[in-house]
Amino acid sequence: MNPDTPDQRSRLHSSVLVAPSRESRRDRKARRAAARALVAQDRGVTRDKAQARASRLAAEKRGTVVLPRSGEPGPAALRTPGRLRLPRHQDTSATLAGSYPFLAEGGLGSEGVFVGHDMYSGSSFVYDPWVLYNRGLITAPNVVLAGIVGSGKSSLAKSLYTRSIPFGRRVYVPGDPKGEHTPVAEAVGGRAIALGPGMSNRLNPLDESHRPDGLDDGRWASQVASRRRDLIGALTETVLDRHLTPLEHTAVDIALDRTVRSADVPVLPRVVDHLLAPDPRDDHDGRLGEDGRLVGHALRRLVAGDLAGLFDGPSTVTFDPTLPMISLDLSRVSENATLISVLMTCASAWMESALMDPAGGQRWVVYDEAWRLMSHPALLRRMDAHWRLARHYGIANMLIFHKLTDLDNVGDSGSALRALASSLLANAETRIVYRQESDQLGATAHALGLTGTEQSLLPTLGTGQGLWRIKHRSFVVQHQLHPAELELFDTTARMTGGDSR
């Protein structure tokens, strides 16, 4: 009997194991031998099945393509079944940024005025204070730019404002002590107004100037009267080098009011006349002439003394706020500090009505050679007012220094003037620092809150390279110029014989 199925084997086992009670010894041995043979046969079948299954798995494994331990070569590289393990390596972020670009600063985006390229990421660097303000990246549009002579800061300033003109921005330079911005203004279709002794140009500080849109006659007359009063007071304080007393303020108000009522075009000589010889109808106690005597003699210096010829008659130049750029060229009076201050004060008041026009658009106001301007209290106060109202009037002020320690030369330590000068820096969230001398590094780092790495960069910067601090972010940028810009912006022609390369 050769059972082929489990049921047949089971019945056979039963028949073998359940033997008759009178089974012989031989039959018992045969039965046990048959049982052992069946068990062995069953084990053999199970073993054969397991071996066949193992053979199939081995063949399937041999036929499966797997990734090598070190990863695949060629285009499929870096795919590996295990974890990527690299040896530890330490280096500076500047070096690692070349191998791992994701470590570099993401930049300010692509919307704005092209400046050059980011020296760490290699990408283009653009900047526009109005765009950054709209995106919430800055809250103050003012800019402070500092750099030693020959570092390229003037070229950067000119690039920023000229490249903004095609975007609808206008440029005002209320005082250009070296005349550097004159050729730029003429090249962009603007105007440079040159003032100085012996020239035909005259500026009347009592002009009404530009009338903003939307003002009725009453409000406009009130604004003009207030501006004239403030301007006369500022001019007098500049010449006297002190604040006016209450009696002197009263004398100025009466003389100005009498001048405006008695002339179609009020001019400064008439104000001087009414101060030195007041109208009897205004001098009720007989002391008005004495109260305004020092003020009258101070203003007389502007119309009949060493400062005569610039403010003693009607204006021969006009302020056109529709021009793309207007610059006041003061290069012919650069040696007379008092005259520069007076001209700057008049120019600031002259442009002020245009700056405060809500329909005037977005404008750059550039203060070059700021160390000269900030030494005059009246002018510093006007600058501070413009900086605080920059967002309201849509203007971006740019203050250009040689070094930030120039702020320490304004007034005495702890004085109100020093506080005003420091507030200009505090109200500028864009600080651009070009190369600095080694003895200026500590003061510059303290004023701007630079890190040790940023401070160490300053003396190593080349021409046209600057550290940009925009709020809490830092960039090292190489300024790039078009050959036409390089020729127009060149300030070294006298030293190089006209070769601007």
- Report strand order across the widest sheet: 2-1-11-10-9-3-8-7-4-6-5
- Tally of structural domains: 3
Radius of gyration: 43 Å
Question: How many H/I helices?
Answer: 20
Q: What name does CATH use for the topology of the largest domain?
A: Rossmann fold
CATH architecture of the largest domain: 3-Layer(aba) Sandwich
Largest sheet: 11 strands, mixed
**Which stretches are low in confidence, meaning pLDDT under 50 for 5 or more residues running?**
12-19
Instruction: Give the CA-based shape.
Output: rod-shaped
Helicity, in percent? 40-55%
Strand content: 5-15%
Output the CATH homologous superfamily of the largest domain.
P-loop containing nucleotide triphosphate hydrolases
- What is the SS-derived class? alpha/beta
- The count of DSSP E runs of length 2 or more, i.e. the number of strands, is 11
CATH C-level label of the largest domain = Alpha Beta
Average residue-wise pLDDT: 80
Cα separation of the termini: 113 Å
Architecture blueprint of SSEs:
Elements: H1 6-17, H2 25-63, H3 93-99, E1 113-118, E2 124-127, H4 129-134, E3 143-146, H5 153-164, E4 170-176, H6 182-187, E5 191-194, H7 217-240, H8 246-262, H9 268-276, H10 288-291, H11 293-304, E6 325-329, H12 337-355, E7 363-367, H13 370-373, H14 377-388, H15 390-393, E8 395-401, H16 416-426, E9 430-433, H17 441-448, H18 452-457, E10 465-470, E11 473-479, H19 483-489, H20 493-496
Parallel strand pairs: 3-8, 3-9, 4-6, 4-7, 5-6, 7-8
Antiparallel strand pairs: 1-2, 1-11, 9-10, 10-11
Name the features.
single chain; 501 residues; alpha/beta; Rossmann fold; 3 domains; eleven-stranded mixed β-sheet; 11 strands; 45% helix; rod-shaped
